[in-house]
Amino acid sequence: MENAKYDVVMIGGGPGGYVAAIRAAQLGLKTLVVEKDKLGGVCLNWGCIPTKALLKNAEVYNLLKHADEFGFSFDNLKADFSKAVKRSRDIALRSSKGIEFLFKKNKVDYLPGTATVTAPGSIQVEQPGKKSIISAKHIILATGARPRAIPGIKIDGKNVITSSEAMVLPEPPKSMIIIGAGAIGVEFAYFYNAYGTKVTVVEMLPSILPIEDREVTKTLGRVFAKAGITVMTETKVDSVVSGKSVKVTVSGKEGTKELEADVALVAIGVQGNIEGLGLETLGVKTEKSFITVDANYRTNVEGLYAIGDVNGPPWLAHVASAEGVACVDAIAGKKPHPINYDNIPGCTYCQPQVASIGLTEEKAREKGHELKIGRFPFRSHGKALAMNETEGFVKLIFDAKYGELLGAHIIGAEATEMIGELAVARTLETTYEQIVHTIHAHPTLTEGIAEAALDAYGEAINI
Question: Which of 177, 266, 283, 374 could bridge to 261 as Cys pair (CB 3.0-4.6 Å)?
Answer without folding.
Answer: 177
